[in-house]
Amino acid sequence: QCRLEPVRCSPTMGDCSSCERNKPSECTMCPVLVEPPEEGDARSLFDGQVEVTVRCPELAATLEPLEHLQLNFDAMGAVGSAWRVSEEPAPQGFLAFGGSACVIQPKCDSGTATAASGEQFQDGTGTASAATGSTAASEQPLNGTGARRRVLLALPVWAVDYERAKWLSALTVPETWLFCRLRRTICTSAFGHVVMEFDYPAGVVLKDWFREHGTMQEEKAKALCQGLLQKFTRLRDTPLKLYGLVVPSAIYLSGDGALANILPLGCLLSPAGARAAVLCHGSACLAPELSQAAVRGQLEDVRAGAADAFAAAALVLEAVSGMSPKAIRNPELLGRLPEGASDLLLRLLHEEPTWRLGCEDALLHPWLSSRSSPETLAK
């Protein structure tokens, strides 16, 4: 344990009864605090929404920050000759864990884009890295206009598991996979970054959908829950581990509220990158044991499936009620959910991972197979 001097517990790092406001505490549950920076802090990192301050000097000294950057993708040789950088901002979910991102589109939208198939891309050192993916599959219509968009994401080399990224970029996935497709991965060693090219995600960001349509009806909430649990379970048979590193801005829904796309960024992070993502860009969707493991530098000891189950439940809870995982322990708020939903979410959001219901077992819960009531989840 290391001595912390918290002003208040981080709302994103789990509940900790031993932390008290304005009092020093010895607590590994709250190593990262969401507070305005103060003079003398070991390190401050800005994630675009809140100021995240690491107050433990020993921890800050060993933490590589994942910061938001503005990189020139053309100068890095990451943009194919048939493509150009668009002025459109990159979707927020790609920047959930820092780095730099941009949208690219064909120079001639009416033509066929071939950049993602056989073209060679310079890696910044004069060495070409071959792109992956098929030309036919790369021709993805956008809004029926024939225009196409992709997203380039650059993260520091140390933050990316390059072998996993190459494995995923070489994978030809069916539409039912629902994880946003990674087209190619190149290491721009001269710039110290790995650049990954993704398909532009289809659908509407979870929070935007919620803002437009309000809380979900029970039937749609069940479908979302089943979709997330099924997709997270599917990762078990792959080299990828998500560790629950998913945020609401990385979840996309179709117009009718069905699960449409998931950004698999958490699967592509190295142990050091995952540690920085947890400590620098915390989210209420993250399982509480992740922060403890990140402090110790032992994320590999975390049960990835248990963390995924927590994240799925947290996302469903937010979509149907706007509540955080902490709020579900409030009997009054819990009473707003149907009995079956509250039982399942409580089991999935258990703070102790060994007692938490796993994704596969959760799919067998009676609520997901029962007929929906006419009431919505949020009364």
From TrEMBL:
Q: Which domain of life is it from?
A: Eukaryota
InterPro entries the UniProt entry points to: Kinase-like_dom_sf
Q: Could you tell me where the Low complexity compositional bias lies?
A: 124-138
Region (Disordered) residue ranges read 115-142
Q: What is this protein called?
A: Protein kinase domain-containing protein
Q: Which organism is it from?
A: Alexandrium monilatum
